[in-house]
Specification:
By secondary structure, the chain is an alpha/beta fold. Helix content is 46%, strand content 12%. It has a single domain, classed as TIM Barrel (Alpha-Beta Barrel).
């Protein structure tokens, strides 16, 4: 049975529980929350797609753009508008591009766990997923001195055994699931409380609009189309009092026109005055505080 005090505000969730999300009290009277988050996949996006891409240098150069242009331009803009974001980084990227990752840390942004080689978790292969997680954790700590509290699964997949493992390793929140517009806490199959989930709205995955045509016939979307989608989603989420979790990639949103989409969207969100723009760590910490109040 679920803890009664907890369900009045924060339900524990698994894929087969379908309780409606409760009203979520955002801080300082804010209407909704915006979670600006970047997946710094770099070359791992292409190596994970096909190991033979190791020798396809033009394909790898899509990922290499992040260190040369994408991440520096994004950091410059975030500094100019005084926004702190969360950067989910695979361990391989930290090992290969330490200067880029150190620049993110110096600017005061949150670093989240994103695997090691961006391998998609598979419930039939927990041992490999455990190794992938531990290698990523080790790289973040060794190179950046960071012990992350946030985790975004590569390829957006997860399962009960892996959720339990990341909880045991100190992860406070996940941002991978697509099943709500408000934060919630997972319930493991053994009935125990899992990590907090900051669910993603897939409409905010820039890869869907800006780069996936290399391996598919999907064309690039013009800026007015993407802004129309993002602005419409934000408007309705504000009305519902929910959370907008973004999935931006510097090799997409760091490109000139795509950068403009991100810039204009963030400016509009700030202009409302009632949108809480926060890191995953901040949102999860607020959730924990409210969860504690609900138990009293």
């Amino acid at each position: 049975m679920r803890d009664k005090a907890m369900t009045t505000v924060f339900p524990l969730r698994t894929a087969n529980l379908a309780d409606p999300a409760p009203e979520y009290p955002w801080p300082a009277g804010k209407s909704c929350a915006l979670f600006p988050a970047f997946d710094v996949d770099g070359e791992t996006a292409w190596l994970q797609h096909d190991a033979a891409n190791t020798d396809r240098l033009v394909t790898l150069s899509f990922g290499g753009y992040e260190e040369r242009v994408g991440v520096p331009k994004i950091l410059e803009h975030l500094r100019s508008v005084e926004i702190k974001a969360t950067f989910f980084i695979p361990g391989w990227i930290v090992d290969v591009h330490p200067a880029m990752c150190e620049a993110i840390v110096r600017d005061g942004h949150e670093i989240g766990h994103h695997g090691y080689l961006h391998n998609r978790p598979d419930p039939a292969n927990f041992a490999a997923d455990q190794e992938e997680f531990e290698k990523g954790m080790a790289s973040l700590k060794r190179v950046l001195g960071v012990v992350p509290v946030g985790y975004r699964a590569a390829g957006g997949e997860n399962y009960d055994e892996l959720l339990a493992h990341i909880r045991e390793r100190g992860i406070l929140y996940s941002s991978s699931f697509r099943d709500d517009i408000r934060p919630y806490r997972h319930r493991q199959r053994d009935g125990s409380a899992g990590v907090i989930e900051l669910p993603i709205n897939a409409s905010f995955d820039d890869w869907l609009y800006g780069l996936s045509q290399r391996f598919s016939p999907r064309p690039m979307f013009p800026s007015e189309h993407v802004l129309s989608i993002w602005n419409g989603e934000l408007d309705q989420t504000r009305e519902w009092g929910g959370l907008v979790s973004m999935v931006m990639h510097p090799q997409v949103s760091g490109r000139p026109m795509r950068f403009g989409i991100m810039r204009d969207f963030l400016a509009r969100a700030r202009g409302f005055g009632d949108v809480w723009i926060a890191t995953g760590r901040e949102i999860a910490a607020h959730f924990v505080a409210q969860e504690t109040v609900a138990r009293l």
